[in-house]
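Follow-up to my earlier ticket, as requested here are the two runs.
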Amino acid sequence: MKRILLFFLLSMICLNTFSQEDITQRELKEHIQFLTSDKNAGRYPGGKENRWVVKYIKNEFKRLGIKPFNGNYKQVFKAELRVDKGIEKKPIVTTCNVVGFIEGNDPVLKQEYIVLGAHYDHLGLGGPSSKSDKRGVVYHGADDNASGTSALLEIAEKLASKREQLKRSVIFIAFGAEEQGLLGSQYFVEHPTVPLSQIKLMVNLDMVGRLNAEKQVYMGGAGTFPGGVDFMNTLGKSLGLNPVVHAGSVGGSDHVSFYKKGISVLGIHTGGHPQYHTPEDTLDLINLEGEKQVCEYVFQTILQKASTTDEMHFINQD
């Protein structure tokens, strides 16, 4: 009996260790299922649905041992919403970024930060940014950007299990109101939780759930940090991916807010598709196996850059 009990306990320890150290399709799917559920009504800024999503992300950060700054994961701000042409008055709602960090172990380098970000909001029930005339139906945003948010959480989990290897600190940000004009990331860089000069790289995940048959992962900004283009090409190929790496081409998502402040960036995505900004951007079209590969790629990128003593500085690509 004692042997059976010991075997059971050891098995549970191994199982828990595995789940903490592995990025899984199952967990990616579970995150996307929650984020795209009809209950969350397209994750529009403001309102109870926004609060439900924020609570979910905050609870995941807590579970992983990701610490808040000054005791609060929420960075609250006001967002002016986009409206249809001809409407002059723009509604203003309250929303927030969800922010946490893992502290590095080097007494000096822990004062330097790598940011991993993804926006959690989408288009709600349609509106001026949609590519469809449908209104009053849920714009699920499975790829845009439940995929990026789920990847953020899974990568955070794996980095948390490797925290002893980190020399630099890592900040995790789930941005609000990206679809309203990068408002969450703009707010963060104007009200940073650490001095902007200490942020050495910002990696942004926006639409990473539709890896194609050629396994092409697209990224802009790889030339904004030393050796970035070669590093991202070599690492991607070693993981069985075909990275499409641009030194510049910084793009139009939340990493742009950081680039404008003189911070090195990587904007990562798996390409556009006809379902972009329509109600048809749904979970059944997500390539979960492919998203897991993208997560491993980003995890290795951050792990290697956070555990090296190599100097990191900004290189302007304009």
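Run two:
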Amino acid sequence: MEPEDEQSGEPAQRPVPPGLSLFEPAAGASGAEEGPVDGGEEPPPDGGPPDGEPPARRRRTRRVLLWTLSALLVLVVGGCGALWWTAEHYASSVRRIPDAFPTAPESAQPKPVPGSGLNLLLVGLDARSDTPTTGSAAKAPAWQAGAARSDTMMLLHLSDDRSSATLVSLPRDTWVPIPGHGEAKLNAAYSWGGPALMTETVQNLTGIRIDHLAVIDWNGFRALTDAIGGVDITVPRTIEGVGEARAWEAGTHHMDGATALLYVRERYGLPGGDLDRTKRQQNFLRALMLKVMDSGTLTSPSRLGGLLGTVGEVVSVDDRLSNTDLFQLAWGLRSLRADDVRFMNAPFGGFATRGEQSVVLLADRPAAQLWEAIRNDRTDQYFQEHKAGDTLGTDVD
């Protein structure tokens, strides 16, 4: 029998043993009323666990939460640290070129335009020696006065949002003013004054401020091609050999470094001479870019690090391009696709002779319009308005 309350005559409530939850009645206490009872506490208004929850359980829950957060923090910090180490390790292997920019006063150089993208000058050296002049294995200086001329000059513009790129080949026989030397072929600038004079000459020609410079010799070109396993290039029609020029059968050719070098250097067997040769160089770069993109290299930090390591073995860049800049530059191109990259020659104005030299002239007005578009990061608008520009098609001899 339950004892009765002396005043109401109702059965008296039994005290709740300390430490038991109010939501879990003691055995045999079925039908106990909800709400506070003598010696109990009101459940928290927010619906959370009551203050009467066992302290051991609360401590265990907190420990689990703390260890989970700690593990996540370790993973995040460790991943960032590994990514930073990879970037530093591979980017540090890229050889830097000191004094690669003009010493002319700022007032005599094109003014940089904020938010207008990035402009890089790509230079291929006509170094006929087997001794490397670029990359981490270089045993000879990248430039000695009169030792070698630049064989390839390309201006690469990356839009500010990295959604598009424009690569413009400057034929090596382009007739231009070279500071301190009068007028001459463009490739003479590197021979006379190295990277700094070449950069200044291109800046004066285009009115575009060069942000960075990358240089590779033909030994490096061969090695880089072999390092990625070669490239596939389609020759649209059979080309007969002329003199020392190699004959090419129509069809797709898998080219290793040595074969690719023959392909991009040849000009005597081509109807357009040096202009067709620049298109072959662009065609090779397009095939190289497609292979790198198809392999997922630019979207994988580890693979990207490996690519930078390979590039560092054969390419030299200006010493203003820090390790972080180099990695961010490559990583920023991860969303770029082949259709986002336009390859073209500088607007052609005709062939001419200067003394006994055969030279290339640029078309002044079309060239000025292109340089202005690049300078102000308006290349998309330029190509909409100039459909017939000398852009690279799929039919390249």
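The only thing I checked on run two: The longest strand covers residues 150-158. Let me know what else you need.
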